Amino acid sequence: MGNSPRPTVLPSMAALQLLCFFIFSLVPDFAGAITRQYTFNITHKNFTRLCHTRSLVTVNGKFPGPRLVAREGDQVLVKVVNHVAENITIHWHGVRQLTSGWADGPAYVTQCPIQTGQAYTYNFTITGQRGTLLWHAHISWLRSSLYGPIIILPKLNESYPFKKPYKEIPVLFGEWFNVDPEAVIAQALQTGAGPNVSDAYTINGLPGPLYNCSAKDTYKLKVKPGKTYLLRLINAALNDELFFSIANHTLTVVEADAVYVKPFEADTLLISPGQTTNVLLKTKPHLPNATFYMFAGPYFSGVGTFDNSTTAGVLVYKHPSSNNHLKKLPTLKPTLPPFNATGFVANFTKKFRSLANAKFPANVPQTVDRKFFFTVGLGTNPCPKNTTCQGPSNNTKFAASVNNVSFVLPSVALLQSYFFGQSNGVFTSDFPQNPTTPFNYTGTPPNNTMVSNGTKAVVLTFNTSVELVMQGTSILGAESHPLHLHGFNFFVVGQGFGNYDPNKDPSNFNLVDPMERNTAGVPAGGWIAIRFLADNPGVWFMHCHLDVHTSWGLRMAWVVLDGPQPNQKIPPPPSDLPKC
After folding, report:
1. Between vectors from CA 521 to CA 520 and to CA 525, what angle results, nearest 5°?
2. Could you tell me what this protein does (predicted)?
3. Distance between CA 332 and CA 311 in Å, rounded?
4. How many whole angstroms separate alpha carbon 516 and alpha carbon 467?
5. Which of 68, 120, 250, 511 is in the most buried spot, having the most CB atoms within 10 Å?
6. Which has the closest alpha carbon to 352: 234, 264, 437, 468?
7. Is 348 in a helix, a strand, or coil?
8. Shortest CA distance to 158 belongs to which of 64, 262, 78, 260?
């Protein structure tokens, strides 16, 4: 009886239709998800700006680098081939890298660098993200010329939560140095002094007419009247937060760090290095009798020198008749805030709110498993014996730290050493949860500004909900620090000036629709509170995105342990992972 054949049951028409409907209802998730392959050849190429010609390290000979375009859900393979003498890694800034930490890119954190003549294929899938991000080198200061946009389109048949723009235009802010930035940071680290600043800011690689010898190197954004343009703004500058404004035009902010926001209008924006902002530019209904400057200039809250200059592009309305018409038009200028407008910055950042609707929820952790309090700021290291240093005080070197630990990059990659259980002698897991020596963080700084040096990480079990308060200090000057967390987005639930008060401040936290980002500024002389869910196993770098502070040690790492399910574990490394 047990082996008797089962009767064949032919499905009814209704059942077949139901089955077809079920199958097709699954299709949209995979519809259009494809594998996109790119080759990034790292080569030297000469570029001239400000009448100075320099050999830049580039991707495919382009500066800025090429666009990486994908749809949400796509797999991306980027083969990076190193044809230059410098060691190279590329970071896909803001891409979540769920269980693909081997593709994250920070040198000596998730990989050893790609050496001369070697290649490595970065392999990752874009999951649950759409919008603008950026890619850049993640070793030393090479990202000064190695950077480009990541444009993640919504899935096929999905639309923006705002009116479809007439055209989309990436606008990348950068910095130009007349000398090699690698020499600049090498010299600074040797002498202990602050590094020389850049010679110009750039818009899409061009400094613009306010600089010497640069009128011909001006970015022109040509528009038609009565249209809506989506500008994908990216700050790829090394060391400077930037204000941006277009004369006589108001911008509508619709997205930041590849997360949609409740739309709001602004005449002037602030964008920190590593941050992206998508804005809608509505052009005037009729041809205006003017062209319009677009300015980007620095926000600087610290002490010391900075590049206090302005890059300018031009917004030009296309005239149906001849070009001669343009010559006679006046060019109107916007007014940027003063360089130290910390109040403006605080008010501006508070305007960002997640959409927090059914389609784009804000999954803010409502309860917290682990709380951390990190101080972030500058400090000093002693000068090595028998040498002279030019740091902030007699024979010291500039340093920077998190909880007074100035992070020392290891000589092998953290992720590899962790994955193979060989972390002994590479890093320790005793990073302090709180400052070891509390002090009045934003008051008169302590006499002893020396930092400790080490390679320390925090270990989190999988799916831990984390609350982290980052407190700026006044040591060697209160300064804004744009902090970037790899491998995660986080929610900015609170911010304020002065010292964080754990008894009073949490009652004002926004747990409903806070901004979700990958890079957020710790205010000058203030604090920021963030929450995130540690749902991504791996070793994840967190650092200030002002490269001078990163070089000085304002960086640390989170180790997130594997979860129980197969898709919650780090896979073995790819066979072509570079060796140290």
Report:
1. 150
2. Lignin degradation and detoxification of lignin-derived products.
3. 15
4. 14
5. 120
6. 264
7. helix
8. 260
Q: Tell me how far apart the alpha carbons of residues 499 and 296 are, in angstroms, rounded to a whole number.
A: 31
Which tokens hold the place of 130? 């759409």
State the average pLDDT over residues 257-280. 98
Query: CB atoms < 10 A from the CB of 336, how many?
Result: 19
Residue among 97, 70, 68 at smallest CA distance from 486: 97
Cα torsion 439, 443, 444, 450 to 10°: value is: 50
pLDDT for residue 66 is more than 80: yes
What's the burial of 340, exposed, middle or buried (CB within 10 Å: 0-12/13-18/19+)?
A: middle
Structure tokens at 371: 């709380």
- At position 374, the amino acid (one-letter code) is F
Tell how strand 167-176 and strand 452-454 pair up: unpaired
Q: Are strands 228-235 and 276-282 parallel, antiparallel or unpaired?
A: antiparallel
Judge whether 226 and 278 are in contact, CB under 8 Å: no
- Paired sense of beta strands 119-125 and 75-82, if any: antiparallel
566: helix, strand or coil: helix
Helix and strand numbers (H, E) in the chain are 6, 33
pLDDT at 52 over 70: yes
**Strand ranges across the sheet with 228-235:** 200-203, 167-176, 228-235, 276-282, 251-256, 259-266
Query: What is the residue type of 576?
Result: D
The bridge status of strand 259-266 relative to strand 515-517 is unpaired
Q: What is the DSSP string of 291-324?
A: EEEEEEEEE--SSS------EEEEEEEPPSS-TH
Q: Which residues of 531-561 are buried (b: 16+ CB within 10 A; e: fewer)?
A: bbbbbbbbbbbbbbbbbbbbbbbbbbbbbbb
Q: Note the pTM of the prediction, 2 decimals.
A: 0.94
235's tokens: 């700050």
Cis amide leading into 64 (omega within 30): yes
Contacts with 385 (C-beta within 8 Å, 6 or more apart), sequence order: none
* Distance in angstroms (rounded) separating the CA atoms of residues 299 and 241: 5
- Cα separations in angstroms, 424 against 107, 129, 418, 430: 19, 36, 9, 13
450 CA to centre of own chain: 29
Ordered DSSP codes for 551-565: HHT-EEEEEE---SS
What's the rounded mean pLDDT across residues 460-478?
98
The position carrying tokens 């209802």 is 25
Cβ neighbour number for residue 361 with a 10 Å cutoff:
11
Q: Are 431 and 456 in contact (CB under 8 A)?
A: yes
Are the CB atoms for 140 and 185 separated by under 8 Å?
A: yes
Q: For residue 6, give every residue at least 6 positions away whose Cβ sits within 8 Å of its Cβ, in sequence order, or none.
A: none
How far is CA 158 from each of CA 32, 248, 256, rounded to the nearest angstrom?
11, 33, 19
Picking from 127, 96, 126, 28, the residue whose alpha carbon sits closest to that of residue 488 is 96
How far are the Cα atoms of 102, 146, 477 from residue 89, in angstroms, in the given order?
11, 10, 32
- Reading the block at residue 316, the tokens are 């030009």
